[in-house]
Amino acid sequence: MAARVAHVELRGFGWRHAGRAAWAVRGVDLRIERGERVLLLGPSGAGKSTLLAALAGLLAEDSGEQEGTVTAVPGGVGIVFQDPETQLVMARAGDDVAFGLENRGVPFEEIWPTVDAALAAVGFTYPRDHPTSALSGGEQQRLALAGALATRPSLLLLDEPTANLDPHGAALVRSAIGRVLADRDTTLVLVEHRVAEALGLVDRVVVLGDGGVVADGAPDAVFAEHGAALAEQGVWVPGHPVTPRRAGSPAGPELLRGEGLWFRHPGIDRFALTDVDCLVRAAEALAVVGPNGSGKSTLALLLGGLLVPTRGAVMPTVDLAAGLTRPPHRWRAAALASRIGSVFQDPEHQFVSTRVVDELALGPRRVGRTAGETASIVDDLLARLRLSHLAHANPYTLSGGEQRRLSVATALATAPRVLILDEPTFGQDRRTWIELVDLLAKLRDDGCGVVAVTHDSDFVQALADRTLWMIGASNE
Amino acid sequence: MSSVATLMRRSDAPLARRNPVAKLAAGLVFTFAVLATLDPLTPALAIVIVLAAVPLFGVGYRELARRAAPVLLGATGVIVSLLFFAAERTGAVLFTLGPFAVTTGMVYTALGLSLRLFAVALPAILIFTTTDPTDLADALIQNVKAPPRFAIGALAALRLVPLLGAQWRLLTLARRARGVDAGANPIAALRNFASATFALLVGAIRRGTRLAMAMDARGFDSSEPRTSARRQRFGPADLALVVASIALSAALLATTVALGTFDPLLA
Amino acid sequence: MATAETQTSGRWRTVDIVVASVVGVAFGVVFWAWTLLWSGPADAIPLPGRAFMYGMWLVPAVLGGLIIRKPGAATYTETVAAVVAIALGSVWGWSIFFQGVIEGLGAELAFAIFAYRRFSVGVALLAGTLAGLAAAIFDIVAWYPASAYDTATMRLPYVAITAVSSAVIAGLGGYALTRALAQTGVLDRFPSGRERVPV
Predict the structure, then answer these.
(1) For residue B69, what are the domain limits?
(2) Helical H runs in chain C?
(3) What ipTM was predicted for this assembly?
C-alpha cells in the first residue's frame, strides 16, 4: 500500500516580506492530511496570515524572500479573508460568485448552475442580483465563502473570517462553514480569534510561534498542556477568562448628557438614531451595545461633538464645558479635544503626521501648551503606552495593537474628561485586549468618563459599570 | 455619492436598454458635433433633441434638472470670464460695468458658449444615469475587445467609491476630534484637505492591494482566456441608435451651415 | 536580498491594475469633495486666476506613473479619475473623458522620454508640466476659443499659469506624495516602495 501523500506539507518554511526587516514566519514544519480540519493559532504577528497566503500560492516571488518549501497537492485552493469589503469584486451577489468561474474559463452554460449550487451550499438567501453593498458583514462573508467554494477546491483556507463581524454575523458565517464541511471532504485550515466557537469545526490545533510550530495535536490536549502559556502570549484560549475591572468607588458627577437625540444624514430618509437619551458620568465606564444598524456609532459621534443632532441636544455640564456656552458641535476643534476625546474604530483615520512623536505632540500644541509642557506630555504617554521604541516610526507602519495604543494616546494627550471609543477592542489579540482594558480602567478610576461603543461582550463584562442597550429604533 | 448608488438600476426604457457601448458611441458622436461649432443655434437645437429623447431613457425631467444644476455654475464662470476677457466687443453697446463694455456681440457669444456647455453635459448625464457599470465593462470587453483585466480591475475599484466617500466624511470628522480645524483660514483648510487626501490615498491603496490579492486568489492573474457570465449583445437596435446619432449630428451641422450661422471651432 | 529594481517586467500584475484603478477612483472622490467645498467661492474667481489650482486635476496622472512605473500607467490612472468624475457629476460632461486621456498622455510622454527608467523629481516635474500643457491647450481650443476670448490677456496666461500650477502641484506634489506614501509601507508591492529603509 503506497504511503499517503500529505495534502499540504511545509518544510522549514520561512517568509520575509519585502520592505520589512524581520521575518514574518520562520522554520515551520507542518504536514496536513487530506480531510483534516485544522485550527491555526498564535499571537498577533506570528505569521498566520502569511502562512495561509503561502498555502494559497499568493506570495509572489517579487514580494519577498522565501526559505524552505511549501507543497500542496493540486486540487484547487479556496481562501476567504477577514474583510468582506476588500474581497468582494462585483456589485451583484451572483456576479461575484461567478467571478472565480469566469477567471477559470468555465463555459457560460455551466456558470450559473454552479453559482446557484454554491449559494445554496452556504445558505445564502438573497437573489442573484442583490447588490453586494446592501448585505450585512456576515452575509458578505457568506457570499465570499460561496465564491471560494464555487471552483470546488479541495483545500479551504479561512483567515479570520469572523473578525470584522458582530456576534450575529459571526454566527451566520460559522453556520455556513459548518454546512459546507458537513457534506464534503474538504481539507480546512482555519485561523480564528474566537477559539471557543471555532472548536466545533476542527479536529486538530496547530499553534504558531517564534521559530515555527510550537504545539500540534487534538484541541483538548493542546489546551491542557499549553493553555496558560498561550493565553499569556495573546491567544484567546477557552477556559482562561479575564477578570473584570469594575470601579472601586461609585460614579462621579454627571459630565455630559444626550437628550432626545434624533439623527438623520442629510438627503437620506431613514433615521439613524431615534429618540435616544444618554448620560455620561465621571469615573464611570459606560458601554453602548446593540446590533449593527442600531446607531451606536452615530451616538458616539453625536456625543463627541462631531455631528449635529437633527433633533434633541447634547448638553455638557457647566463643569465640563469650562466656560463654553454653545453645544459641543459648535465648539472649535481645539476646545473640543481638551474636553471630549474621540477614538475612532480605525486608528488610521486619525493619523495626521509622519512620526509617532509628532502625532502625540499635535494635540497639546493645538490646545495651547508650551513646548516644554508638550514634551513632557509626550514622554509620559510614550512610556505609559509602551510606544517609546516607536517614537520616530511612521504611524502607518505600526502593528494593529500599536496603532490602537497610539490612537488612544493621542486622544489622551489633550487630557479630556470624557473619552468616547468606537469598537476599541476590534481585532485585538488577548494581550493587547487586556492592556487596553487596564488602560481604560485606570482612566476611569482617575475620574475620566469613559464611553465605549462595542459589540464585544467580554469587554462589557470586564469593564462596564453601566450598559446602554440600543435596540433598533429606540433604546431602553 | 447617491449618483453611484442609482447606477445600479437596470432600466426598461427603450434607449436605456441599449448596449452600453452603443449609447457611449452615440453620445460621443453627438458631443463632437456640438463642440465643433460656436454659434448658439447648434447647441440650442441639440438641447431640444436631447430633451425630446429624455422620456425614451426613462429619466424624469426633474431628475435631469437636478443633475444638470452644477452646469449653471460652469456657465456663470464662462460668462463672467467673457466679461473681463472678451477678444472683441463687436456690436452695439448694451451697458457698461466699470471699464468693461457689454455688447450685443458678446451676448451672442456668451449664449453660444453657455448653451454649448449644457448641450455637452446633458447627454453624458442621460447616459451615465442609465448605464450599469458592470454592463458597461462587459460590453467593452465583449463588443469592443477591450483588455478584460483592465476593465474588470477598474470595475472592482469602482465598487469602492461609496466606501471611499464614507471614509472621506470620517476623515474630516476625525481631524476635528484631534483638535484640527480650519475655521475661516483658507490656507489651513487647504492643508486639512491635503492631509485628508493623503489619508484617503493610504487607505485606498491598502484596500486595493488586499482586493488584488483576493482577486488573484480566485484566479484573476492567469493568462487563460476569461469567459463571461453575462452576455452583452450588440444588435440591430443598438446599431440603429448609433446611426441615428450620426444622422442627427450631421443634420445639426448641415442646418447651421445652411443658415450661415456655422462658426467653426477650428477656424 | 534587497535589490534596487531598475527593470520591471512590462506586463501589468493584478495589483498594478487594481491599485492604479483605486488611485484614479480615490481622486475621483477627492475631486467630488473639492467641488463640494470650493464650488461657490472658486467659481467666482475669474479665469485665468482659477488656473492656479488646476494642477490638482493632474495629480492622478503623475502619481499613477510614479507608483506603477509601467507604460500606460499615467494615462490609465488619469482616465479612470476622469470617468469617476463624470459619473459623480461633472460640469463638463463627456469632454472630460477626452481631456483626461490627453492629460494622461501628456504625463506619459515625460515618462516615455526617459524610457520608463527614471522617476526622479525632474521627471515628475516634466510629467506635471506636460500634463498641464495638454489640459490647458485642450481647454483653450475646446472651451475658450480665440474668437471669444482675448489671447494675450487671457488664453496665453491661462496656459502659462496652468502649466506652472501643474508642474508644482502635480509634478512636485506628486513626487512628494509618492515618497510619503512609500514611507507608510503601502507601496511595498511596488518598485517605488522598495526604495525606503526596511522597517
Answers:
(1) 3-132+233-259
(2) 14-44, 59-68, 73-87, 95-113, 121-142, 156-165, 173-184
(3) 0.91
